[in-house]
Each structure stands twice: as structure tokens, then as C-alpha cells.
Amino acid sequence: MAAIEINQVSKIYTGDVHAVKSVNIDIQDGEFIVLVGPSGCGKSTLLRMVAGLEEISKGEVKIGKRVVNRVDPAERDIAMVFQNYALYPHMTVNENLAYGLRNRKTPKAEIDARVAEAARMLQLEAYLERKPRALSGGQRQRVAMGRAIVRKPAAFLFDEPLSNLDAKLRVSMRGEIKRLQHRLGTTSIYVTHDQLEAMTLADRLVVLNRGEIEQIGAPLDVYHTP
Ligand code: ADP
Ligand code: ADP
User: Fold this and answer.
1) Element (H, E) at 9
2) Where found (predicted)?
């Protein structure tokens, strides 16, 4: 696990779009940070800069003690969960869960143990031999989370992971993420536009507006400010 430091980070897209403006966030080891704010405020851009999917225009991001501006996404020791699941359709659940570890040449016994543990945690044991198309939306999202968990990353990055699910499933998956958070205690940055999700999950909320931090604090403090 690791702390994450976002120091004076800016993103300027071509065409002079200032998407993120000198943002500072010190994220403690094990802290769950939720980024909220109106569409276009820069949440996704900020998350993608931490992930390494978007170049940082100014400032620096540190994961653990390491400045990662020039480090490849795959070398950052983070795992990202997307709203579109990003599962491999031709692979079974078992193969989807194991894929990232196989790529990293993890020994087979270790892969089997981690996949079994993740499947147990996420109630996927009965579905291990199915392909994604034979799963419900909630089950697919569990597999996507399982793929992140088996890696045992220093941090999780979530990009609106529940926004494709219907309202009822969102509530139950919200509870599930909360449970995993308690159990694993992994540093997390979670982007959502769902206020209840933000309230339920956040140790600290960061409200972005036009690329800048408007408020930062415990959920009750932030949402009770007039
Ligand atoms: P959010 O995730 O909060 O909806 P984004 O980070 O997606 O916001 O976008 C922030 C701003 O940057 C918006 O004005 C958006 O139009 C702009 N933007 C996002 N991606 C690009 C891109 N690849 N090129 C140019 N502008 C972009
Ligand atoms: P690995 O398990 O080695 O991370 P992946 O195939 O999961 O390999 O992802 C490779 C890279 O592509 C990662 O940096 C990941 O963050 C990014 N990536 C994977 N799926 C998506 C997606 N749906 N949208 C954007 N980026 C993605």
C-alpha cells in the first residue's frame, strides 16, 4: 500500500483547455478519496493522470515515495476499475481474473490462490467457468473488481465504476465496495457523480469545479456547508 501525493498538478489539453489547475491532494496510506463535481470539472482527467493514461502537463504525482510522471501505467503498482468493465469477452471469469497475473509471470500456485480468494470475496465462485456475456451487469462489475484485487496493487483507481448499473444494483455494489474497503484498506481514488456513493464511501471528499478544488474534507462537513 502507499500514500499518493498530487502536487501542483495541471492539465492543459491542446487548444488551451485548462482541464486541471494546480491541484494539491495529499492522500494518506489506506485513505479512500472520492472526487466529485459537475460534468467537465476535470475528475476523469485527474484520475487518468494518476493512472498514467494522460500526460501530466505541470506538477508531479507520487505513488509511495516515487515520482511517477514518467512511469508507464503498468509499472505504477495501481489497478483501475472502469465503468465499461473492460473484460475480455472470449475468456472465462477465471481467465479474466488470472490474465494480469499471468502476464506478470506470477507462479501458477500463487495465481490460483489469489483468484480463489478474490472469487470468494466477490461471490463469484459459481461463475468461474462462464464467459462475461453470460453474466449480469453486477457480476461483470464484480469480475472487473476482482481483476484489480488479484493484483494486490498499492492503490485502486475507480472511474465511475457503478454508473452503468441500475439503481438497485448500484446500492448493493456500493455496499460491496464499502466492505472491500474495510477488508483490504487499500488507498483508493474514486470518481463519481452520485452523491450517495460519495457520502457512503469517502474518508475525504474532493469537490472539483472548473479544474480547481472547491472543497475538501469529511463528507458531512462538505455536504453541510451552505
Ligand atoms: P469530468 O471527468 O469531470 O467530466 P473531464 O476530466 O472529462 O471532466 O474533462 C475536463 C475538461 O477537459 C472538459 O472541459 C473536457 O471537455 C476537457 N477534455 C477532456 N478530455 C479532453 C481531450 N482529450 N482533449 C481536449 N479536451 C479534453
Ligand atoms: P494490465 O492488467 O497489465 O493492467 P490491462 O489490459 O488491464 O492490463 O490494461 C492495460 C492498460 O490499459 C492499463 O494501463 C489500463 O489502465 C488501460 N485500460 C484497460 N482497460 C481500459 C479501458 N476500458 N479504458 C481505458 N483504459 C483502459
Assistant:
1) strand 4-13
2) Cell inner membrane
**What's the pTM value of the predicted model, to 2 decimals?**
0.88
Q: Is 204 helix (H, G, I), strand (E, B) or coil?
A: strand
- Asked if residues 121 and 149 have their Cβ atoms less than 8 Å apart, the reply is yes
Nearest-ligand number for the alpha carbon of 51: 2
Q: How far apart are CA 148 and CA 95, in angstroms?
A: 14
Question: Closest ligand 1 atom to the C-alpha of 48?
Answer: 6
Distance CA 194, CA 199 (A): 9
The model's confidence at residue 225, banded by pLDDT at 50, 70 and 90, is low
CA neighbours within 13 Å on the CB side: how many for 141?
22
Nearest ligand 1 atom, CA 211: 10
For the record, the C-alpha cell of 159 comes out as 472511474
Can you point out the beta strands (E) in 37-191?
58-63, 66-67, 78-82, 155-159, 187-191
